[in-house]
């Protein structure tokens, strides 16, 4: 068969006859093109992937280059094809992220997962967090470490950690780029990147402005994100890199709805959200440094950071906060050989702390009324961790490690003069084994202990409109997992089975949709499930030499239950659907000319909204289509059509104790976005 000329491919692709890349493939190919050399402080993407693939655990890698010519509006778009990661949109860039049931019932913000940017924590010192610092258009790579698998970063929560790596001038696929995107609901984004290497110095700056009028009433939002880094190589053994970022968020909140309204009047806003002009406005700045020193025996990396955040958040009351978080984290890594056996040792520690002035006012249509709360929240964390990997056979490695922690929480009520505090301590061990029969095939198993400490949103619960301190316990869990991953002759797989036995799981229930949920420690619960991703090259050279047709499938099964609970027996824990599946069929044209692929998102059963298991969201199927084409060596066009059948569905929800209880307010559902279309162009130079 004769190859089609390039001009013909461009016409076909622009007409929508070819298909989307499986952007966030968790099993990427070994070949990486356009990769500049790495550095001590910023390893190349190839080095990052190789290091991750030696981990005896369910860890996943996302190459940001696969996102370059796609519409990635939120972190859900970055992680959509990663098994075990549940990311659902509410409105704008407001998301809920959960790994293995972390924060399963959390109806707002982030808990139970540590979000890192370039290896430095984004979370506040109490463990809570947001996603506004992570710009999807400026992600060079991402690595997902569920549970105790994130020990090498110092994390040991049930959910683990996700590390988003920004590009440097030495790792960016191209020095400079410019993107423009737009689509339905008044959505547009302008983003760009500029970088340069000059001798021992390198610098990169990336920024974006994103605006959307919103699909729902009262959901207009604008996000302004800027990230930059400056590296200096003192000599072949010493390098330092400075990071800086500023972030501005202005997001109206449409609130949650009853299930009937979410499915029948999905574009309406909650009446209380309108009456209170509810919004979330953030102004934040971030500064960080990594200094790396290569020694005769290993390498020392020292991370330090400081984050300032202002929050103006009119909801049930006006939450007005001003906080500062800072920390330092030294780590020593050494590769060694003993008795003919090779190994790698990691020793590290972290100290990070923060203080937050937390005021609340009566909400007068989004403006401050009378003062109702005035307090200061202080958090300190002391952590030490170690992990050792030893290859006892050429194809078998054993891993052992542990983390010690002491987390202190202190709250001072300036109105009453009361002061409350609590300290949490723990020792979290880990043991694992990796068998690598072939260079690209691995079988692994490990056992880890995790510990989640309540954040201030958990401990300061609203009673009669005032903050009330609740001395919650930490959440402790043992997780066992076993799995395999690999690639072989045009197909690949990533399969993990896990089971977590949890004591004191931190669960929430909604008192009122506008009020932060109340948190309690459950008894014994079990989180278990399956995480699967696979791809298969169905055909090569189907239409022209060098093309490829690839089928990809991800499946996450969540079976989270109470065990012998006095009130809920063996009911399912509310918050997440049991099954989440995504299927895509990608046609990739020769020579990187373009792609096209339909994608199907399927939730066969909706999530339970209450622990009594009397109310659940609907099941749904969503059909989408992505396509892209290279019209010149440095110019790429792409489109993303979503929810083509305009399916009405629930994208996320809060949780209740019993939806049938007298007086229960069941307005806890967030409707998913309707049919939409987005177009974009990227120019590199």
TrEMBL record:
Query: What residue range is the signal peptide?
Result: 1-23
Source superkingdom: Bacteria
Q: Which InterPro entries match?
A: Beta-barrel_TonB, Beta-barrel_TonB_sf, Plug_dom, Plug_dom_sf, TonB-dep_rcpt-like
What residue stretches are annotated with the TonB-dependent receptor plug domain? Answer: 52-161
**In which compartments does the protein localize?**
Cell outer membrane
Note whether Cell membrane occurs among the keywords.
no
Q: Which UniProt keywords apply?
A: Cell outer membrane, Membrane, Receptor, Signal, TonB box, Transmembrane, Transmembrane beta strand, Transport
Membrane-protein topology? Multi-pass membrane protein
Keyword S-adenosyl-L-methionine found: no
Pfam families from the entry? Plug, TonB_dep_Rec_b-barrel
Q: Where in this chain does the record put each TonB-dependent receptor-like beta-barrel domain?
A: 182-644
- Fetch the Gene3D superfamilies from UniProt: TonB-dependent receptor, beta-barrel domain, TonB-dependent receptor, plug domain
Q: Which family is this protein grouped under?
A: Belongs to the TonB-dependent receptor family.
Q: Which PANTHER family match?
A: TONB-DEPENDENT OUTER MEMBRANE RECEPTOR, TONB-DEPENDENT RECEPTOR YNCD-RELATED
Q: What is this protein called?
A: TonB-dependent receptor
Where does this protein come from, organism-wise? Answer: Belnapia mucosa
Lineage of the species this protein comes from: Bacteria, Pseudomonadati, Pseudomonadota, Alphaproteobacteria, Acetobacterales
